[in-house]
Amino acid sequence: MSKVPMIELHDGVRIPQLGFGVFQIDPGETAAAVRAALDIGYRHIDTAEMYGNEKGVAQGIRDAGLDRADVFVTSKLNNGFHKPDDARRAFDRTLEALDSDYVDLFLIHWPLPTLYGGDFVSTWKVLEEFGKDGRARSIGVSNFQPAHLDRLAHETDTVPAVNQIEVHPYFTNEQVRAYGRDHGIVTEAWSPIAQGEVLDDPVINRIADGRGKSPAQVVLRWHIQRGDIVFPKSISPDRMKSNFELFDFELDGADMAAISALDKGESGRTGPNPDTFSYIPD
Ligand code: NDP
User: What is the C-alpha separation between 243 and 222, in angstroms, rounded?
Assistant: First the structure.
């Protein structure tokens, strides 16, 4: 487990570069999945109120016999709670569900620029409170575009520590990554294997065959060498294990370039466009 590199965020908080994501894991199966991941050596779990499985994350950590402090846990503010008082209450519920008096990283899940009068700035100021009172060791955003990040830069005091965005070989999202690089915001790449869509790609399979690795390992290694944080999701302990084995091989410059060249621009997205996404769960 010590072989997973740690990345230092601009606030000094250190985060394991490789973690385990729990989106679309059934709440009833989450504790077992998280426990299996922790047994393999993962020490970073990415959850969200929207996923409905924060309690399962807490249970999985207990079942693995680990202390809360041994695991880096991220959660996110759900879309229905952007108004300041709603955000404060939602954060209290997240801590309760996680059975913890703090979270390592707390994010605004989506900017929702077409809702709340376009005001994600007040929401961010509430996250600043959680950062100041220590209940969030670090704060960041998810699915923010450069224009959204610019607004935070002009209207608030705190630069998000991370921006969690869709990134994979079919949607390399370079412009948003470059903004992060220029402003000290670390990119977290969600759906790093495009929910499996990139695994049949001939270029990726050629590289995988040549290296004696699986297509998923090659794609995850590409992210690691680009410096992004990743947390692939799997309910299969075998796939969790192979997704964790990324540190005994390297891709060369030609491999890296060939994978980056698979980018399809906007049409490569598997998820919604953050400029128009306006979903509020029931
Ligand atoms: P991933 O790109 O991690 O892909 C997960 C899918 O790939 C699952 O269907 C899984 O199936 C399959 N899979 C995993 N490993 C392998 C493997 N080695 N070989 C073949 N198939 C494999 O998608 P996610 O969307 O889950 O993204 C990862 C995490 O990113 C999420 O869990 C969540 O934490 C975060 N996320 C954040 C978003 C945001 O808006 N902030 C949006 C989406 C995701 P199986 O389970 O059967 O192994």
Answer: 12
